[in-house]
Amino acid sequence: MTLTTQFYTLVAMIGMGSYFGATLDTYQLFLKRSQRKRWIVFIHDILFWIVQALQVFYVLLLVNQGELRFYSFLALVCGFAAYQALFQNSYLTLLKTFIRICKATADFIKEVVTLLVYKPVTFILKTLMLISLTLMKGLLALLYFIIKVIMGTVKIICSPFVWCFRQIYKLFPVSVTNKVEKLYNYIEGILKKAWNNIYRFINKGKNRE
């Protein structure tokens, strides 16, 4: 290994030591150990150290084809110590400021999206639903009125026929009239139940309005 290569290796390892210090502080800041379970912290720690080792090896591979010497470890320690002494406070201040800016930006975007997209869309959907329900209730009320008019008209028209039918009906035997009355009462009960349900639904719609 030439002196130039050794010098590049030394400088690269010092830089990696400082980089390791910065990444360690960043990792500690985002990990929040006290708020996470131990096994999650353990897995994260293992992955972190593996990534750091791979990065150091990759830099060595670029600089001196992956040769690891004793002074490489000393250079890493020196770089880490230099970061701790000279750059740590400034880096953490910048990092926390950057995080606050990102959070403020995300909150601002969230408020803008809520104000300009979510609330208008929600208002439009609610308005459309209200209009649809109002139209449906109006149609049901109109249908109720039409049915009532038709039934009244049919009742007036059929009243002479009903009177004649009753007179003829009295001539039938009692056994036949009893069966007919049971069938009539059964059908009448079904029709009244259906009619009452429609009437209650329309009245509920009117009360809500």
From TrEMBL:
Ranges annotated as spanning the membrane: 6-27, 39-61, 73-95
Pfam families assigned: Spore_YabQ
UniProt superkingdom: Bacteria
Keywords: Membrane, Transmembrane, Transmembrane helix
Name of this protein: Spore cortex biosynthesis protein YabQ
Species of the source: Peribacillus faecalis
Gene: yabQ
